[in-house]
Design brief:
- α5 runs parallel beside α7.
- This protein is 76% helix and 0% strand.
- The longest helix has 26 residues.
- It is an all-alpha fold.
- It has 18 helices and no strands.
């Protein structure tokens, strides 16, 4: 082989490696990629201007950063692992194990977001049950935890990014938010409980890792104090700029590696969707079309849009086309059920499960779709009833 041929081969291999890395990134960060492409395309249709700086919700981004940092810090402190071990240590029934884990994820997601709840509890679940139940039961349990995270997170303004955004965008009061969402959240908890009692049967013997990780009590208490401060900020008791300053200062002095655990691409994705939404709202024809759809049924439009582009970008996109915040809020929240892309949290648990050597991906996707759409239809009908 000549030197020229060798160089050509090296260049080819380097390009092949480059494309492999690029496609791997796109596959992993599909929402960011979509947001980037949509923003670039619409920027050709609308002349970019200084208004881009004013269309970004800085308060929401600051709160999201703070909440992600707190969630990562609590996970790093060992608190969640300790709590999960404590809860399942004396369980000998698959039904009650499932109920405990579903409830744990449901209520945890209200405060640490649905994404973080699944990142914490799905790996733990796989560790605990992998050798004591069948693969079908594992699939069912992971799907139920995913549904539980998506439904539980809707119950608070900080439970998921779309709630945080809409709460800020429409300047909602605590009463407005909770009076709208709590009935649906309670009904979803009833549905989850019934699902567990009907389908989760059998006895098991759980073996908990005796090498229990020690909890950093001081760090845990500090993060819970910061979480309370964040809640006060969400409810407009505390200024978000002061909260951001306090948390950044705390991380610098006591937990610098937590900075690395924050999902900065998610923050950047929101910035891109803010710009994309601004561009769309500047195009009269598209804005008129979206407005007409939202006027017919904001609930159904936001629910169906979430099935295609997921509920977070749907909330940002459709908020500029309606003042009907209640139906939009409910639509994007229950719209997190359905397809695998309807909620980013669903992709997280799927990726964790799919990495198992024993994973049955097709069976998982089939059951995931069946369970999600069944619950989605029931919640949609219930929401129509209360509206």
């Amino acid at each position: 082989m000549s030197i020229i041929q060798l160089r050509i081969c090296i260049v080819f291999l380097e390009q092949k490696q480059y494309y492999r890395i690029m496609f791997s990134f796109i596959k992993k960060e599909i929402t960011f990629t979509v947001a980037l492409v949509l923003t670039i395309i619409t920027s050709f249709l609308v002349h970019p201007s200084i208004e881009y700086l004013t269309c970004i919700d800085y308060r929401m981004l600051a709160l999201l950063f703070c909440l992600m940092a707190i969630s990562s810090g609590l996970k790093e402190s060992g608190f969640f692992e300790y709590l999960a071990n404590l809860i399942v240590s004396k369980v000998n029934s698959f039904k009650y194990l499932s109920l405990l884990l579903v409830y744990l994820v449901f209520f945890a997601s209200m405060f640490i977001t649905n994404d973080v709840a699944l990142l914490v509890f799905v790996p733990f679940t796989l560790l605990v049950v992998s050798n004591v139940v069948t693969e079908d039961k594992i699939i069912f349990l992971i799907i139920l935890e995913t549904v539980s995270a998506n439904l539980g997170s809707m119950a608070t303004p900080i439970g998921n990014p779309q709630n945080l955004y809409l709460y800020s965008y429409y300047n909602l009061s605590a009463y407005d938010f909770f009076s709208s969402i709590v009935p649906v959240a309670l009904f979803s908890l009833v549905l989850l409980t019934l699902t567990v009692f009907i389908f989760c049967k059998g006895t098991i013997s759980i073996v908990v890792d005796k090498r229990e990780r020690r909890v950093n009590k001081k760090l845990t208490l500090s993060y819970f104090a910061l979480l309370i401060l964040s809640l006060l900020t969400v409810f407009k008791v505390f200024d978000y700029r002061l909260l951001l300053f306090v948390i950044v200062l705390f991380l610098l002095f006591f937990s610098r590696k937590t900075f690395l655990a924050v999902d900065y691409l998610l923050l950047l994705t929101f910035v891109l969707f803010f710009i994309f939404s601004h561009n769309i709202s500047s195009i009269a024809t598209i804005k008129s079309f979206l407005t007409s759809l939202m006027e017919r049924s904001a609930l159904l439009t936001s629910l169906l849009t979430s099935q295609v582009i997921s509920n977070v970008p749907s909330a940002v996109l459709l908020s500029s086309a309606t003042s009907n915040w209640k139906e939009l809020l409910l639509g994007v929240d229950i719209g997190g059920l359905g397809t695998l892309v309807a909620s980013l949290a669903s992709l997280i648990s799927f990726k964790i499960y799919a990495n198992r050597s024993e994973a049955k991906v097709k069976r998982y996707l089939l059951r995931f779709t069946l369970i999600n759409f069944t619950l989605l239809v029931l919640l949609y009908l219930f929401t129509l009833l209360i509206l």
